[in-house]
């Protein structure tokens, strides 16, 4: 039979060839020596096939060509390793597969035909004519032209070679799930079903400590092959029942030493589990079965005892008993990969810290003037490699609300640390009454400082070029003030569903010392009740194949479809899914949606008074009539009038120009604001018994829940809150 011609995509054969050459170079001579020993020699732990050449000399690589209907057209499997496989031309390839694997493999074959992308090195079982199975490493490669179909390469790997290749492959990921899945796939060569169960502390990234007897908590991390499992059976991500510790403790705690155990038949397994619920949760089939439980043990260091990370279950038919050599192979592979699992655990712990910090910054609570929803979607579904996207919303003095979104350069702990510092500083500065442009100016200095390695704040990490957009919503004036540092412009949807991209003058990112240091611009936009504001990071709209303006337009159209009655959180997820479907995004995605309802006119009142001596009396008279109309309690009304009198008196005494007074009725109490054209900051000081200065401000401090100052273009506003 002619050997098939391999397409240009056969670079995977180069990888396989290098692995084989490395193995033969490093171990070929040893394998040849072992093949000369007697099969009865107990030192020989390699499983040999009688009548076949040694692993170092056996031809184990073959291939078959398939047409687009997945039927075999030709192949070169005429070697002992593939004896018994029916590969006659015209045979359907799926006839070589176990029935349970047909849907998965068929889907992968079709996917390679449609996409032209190879699927490399999947551990797969093939059925021989006599009903036995052969475990191979299978790669699916597209032909040179789509009309020619596929080339399927098969490597019948000897067990020791399989150990070598598996150990090399398992340590390629720092994700716990992927590491466990790689281990399970490798162990499938010894069984029909493999499950990897990890201690809950390993799975969550917590510190691993020595477990008490019978109190092991396990969670399933991997399960192969990929098929539909019976109801009640534990699948990846599920916690094992408490009673499972009886079986698992037997494996991981025998005579205070972690040892592998074999339970040879179903009757013994059911007696050990002692209950139908545990049997249905842990036994993968209703037929006769045997299991080998191999503990995943991390060797102790500095005199400490070994620590059990979990247990591996290898299930197979009882007519194929586990031989001692196979158990040695299983234990060897599991032992060699235990440190990879622990490395993944440490990475998971670091990642959990980053993710906890990022989620800590997410908005909480809801104000009666604005509804906020946020969506954060990491690059990978398991949130590995969390980036520097952050978003926040919080109340500000005067009933206003701050909406902030930013993107700190990089990923990992360095980006998370910078993200946390920048976010918290932005909140503190905005809460102190600074305007958005002033806050960005100070954040610009902070990012520059974080890049200073000599300061020891972020050695080896640079946050230069990070972006940030700040929007402040005033529910009384129904306006949004926006300032941006290198960030993409917000999208505003008016109540009539008209959507617009807010025009914000471009400015370099934070810490861009190479650029011309210009003041940050401030832009004010009208936001009538019912308006919707969208802030986002670049991961939502960036696509190398589409212009950024077009992608922002797509976002604008998607946000304009959000109905006023829609649940805002669900609407946000829908927008993100439409623009950045999971699996196709290239960066972390963050979206903030804010539905602005504002204050009702009947809940606010404002007066402008000349800075004369009668201003306090006029303010008290106007406020008194309003508070009676609002049915404010008498004691609260008296406190409010005294508060207004003190603040207006202070404004007339120390400032020039007109004095503004604004009262706002909120769900929690009253908010009083007095503005003037002065720039002096009122300061609360501890006065002596005969000191008349500052007594008015001490009265304000005693009467109010909180008070403060914020700065405006015309001067300042002193605000104070009263409980109703």
Plain-language structure description:
The chain is of the alpha+beta class. It contains 16 helices and 25 strands. Helix 9 packs parallel to helix 10. It is elongated. The chain starts with 10 loop residues before the first helix and ends with a strand.
Q: What characteristics describe this protein?
A:
five-stranded antiparallel beta sheet, disordered N terminus
How would the blueprint of this fold be written?
Elements: H1 11-35, E1 61-66, E2 72-75, H2 102-115, E3 119-127, E4 133-142, E5 150-155, H3 159-170, H4 176-187, E6 193-199, H5 200-204, E7 218-224, H6 245-252, E8 261-263, H7 266-273, H8 276-282, E9 290-298, E10 307-316, H9 324-360, E11 370-377, E12 387-395, E13 401-411, H10 412-431, H11 436-450, E14 467-474, E15 479-485, E16 491-493, E17 499-501, E18 523-526, E19 531-536, H12 548-560, H13 568-579, E20 589-596, E21 604-609, H14 615-629, H15 634-654, E22 659-665, E23 669-676, H16 695-703, E24 706-711, E25 716-723
Helix pairs in contact: 3-4, 3-9, 4-9, 9-10, 10-11, 12-13, 14-15, 15-16
């Amino acid at each position: 039979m002619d050997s098939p011609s391999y397409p240009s995509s056969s670079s995977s054969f180069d990888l396989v060839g290098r692995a084989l050459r490395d193995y033969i170079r490093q171990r070929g001579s040893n394998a040849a020596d072992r093949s000369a020993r007697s099969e009865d020699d107990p030192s020989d732990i390699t499983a040999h096939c009688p009548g076949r050449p040694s692993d170092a000399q056996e031809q184990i690589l073959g291939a078959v060509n398939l047409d687009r209907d997945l039927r075999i057209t030709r192949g070169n499997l005429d070697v002992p390793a593939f004896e018994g496989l029916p590969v006659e031309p015209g045979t359907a390839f799926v006839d070589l597969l176990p029935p349970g694997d047909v849907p998965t493999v068929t889907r992968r074959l079709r996917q390679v035909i449609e996409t032209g992308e190879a699927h490399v090195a999947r551990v797969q079982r093939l059925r021989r004519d006599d009903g036995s199975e052969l475990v191979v490493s299978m790669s699916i490669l597209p032909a040179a032209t789509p009309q020619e179909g596929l080339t399927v390469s098969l490597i019948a790997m000897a067990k020791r070679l399989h150990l070598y290749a598996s150990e090399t492959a398992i340590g390629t990921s720092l994700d716990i799930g992927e590491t466990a899945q790689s281990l399970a796939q490798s162990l499938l060569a010894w069984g029909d079903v493999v499950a990897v169960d990890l201690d809950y502390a390993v799975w969550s990234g917590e510190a691993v400590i020595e477990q008490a007897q019978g109190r092991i908590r396990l969670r399933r991390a991997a399960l192969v092959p990929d098929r539909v499992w019976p109801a009640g059976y534990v699948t990846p991500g599920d916690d094992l029942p408490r009673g499972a510790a009886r079986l698992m403790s037997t494996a991981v705690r025998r005579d205070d030493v972690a040892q592998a155990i074999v339970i040879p038949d179903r009757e013994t397994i059911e007696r050990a589990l002692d209950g139908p619920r545990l049997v249905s949760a842990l036994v993968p089939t209703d037929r006769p079965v045997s299991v080998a439980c191999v503990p995943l043990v991390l060797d102790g260091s500095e005199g400490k005892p070994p620590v059990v990370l979990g247990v591996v279950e290898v299930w197979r038919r009882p007519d194929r008993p586990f031989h001692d050599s196979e158990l040695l192979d299983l234990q060897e592979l599991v032992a060699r990969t235990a440190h990879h699992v622990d490395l993944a655990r440490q990475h998971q712990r670091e990642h959990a810290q980053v993710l906890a910090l990022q989620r800590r910054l997410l908005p909480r609570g809801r104000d009666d003037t604005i509804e906020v929803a946020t969506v954060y979607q990491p690059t990978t579904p398991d949130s590995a490699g969390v980036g520097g996207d952050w978003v926040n919303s919080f109340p500000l003095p005067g009933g206003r609300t701050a909406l902030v979104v930013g993107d700190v350069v990089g990923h990992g702990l360095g980006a998370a640390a910078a993200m946390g510092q920048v976010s918290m500083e932005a909140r503190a500065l905005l809460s102190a009454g600074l305007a958005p442009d002033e806050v960005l100016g100070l954040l610009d200095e902070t990012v520059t400082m974080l890049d200073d390695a000599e300061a020891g704040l972020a050695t080896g990490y640079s946050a230069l070029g990070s972006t940030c957009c700040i929007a402040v919503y005033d529910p009384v004036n129904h306006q949004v003030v926006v300032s941006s540092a290198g960030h993409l412009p917000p999208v505003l949807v008016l109540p009539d569903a008209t959507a617009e991209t807010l025009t914000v003058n471009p400015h370099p990112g934070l810490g861009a010392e190479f650029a011309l240091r210009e003041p940050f611009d401030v832009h004010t936009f009208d936001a009538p009740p019912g308006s919707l504001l969208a802030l986002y990071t670049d991961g939502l709209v960036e696509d190398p194949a589409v212009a950024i303006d077009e992608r922002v337009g797509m976002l604008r159209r998607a946000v304009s479809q959000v109905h006023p009655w829609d649940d805002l959180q669900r609407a946000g997820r829908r927008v993100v899914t439409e623009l950045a479907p999971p699996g196709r995004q290239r960066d972390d995605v963050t979206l903030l949606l804010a539905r602005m309802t504002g204050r009702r006119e009947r809940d606010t009142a404002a007066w402008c008074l000349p800075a004369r001596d009668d201003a306090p009396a006029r303010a008290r008279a106007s406020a008194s009539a309003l508070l009676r109309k609002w049915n404010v309690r008498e004691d609260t009304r008296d406190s409010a009038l005294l508060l207004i009198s003190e603040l207006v008196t202070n404004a007339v005494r120390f400032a020039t120009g007109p004095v503004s007074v604004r009262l706002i009725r909120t769900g929690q109490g009253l908010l009083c604001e007095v503005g003037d054209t002065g720039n002096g900051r009122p300061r609360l000081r501890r006065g002596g018994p005969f000191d008349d200065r500052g007594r008015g401000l001490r009265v304000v401090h005693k009467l109010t829940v909180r008070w403060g100052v914020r700065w405006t273009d015309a001067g300042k506003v002193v605000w104070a809150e009263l409980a109703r």
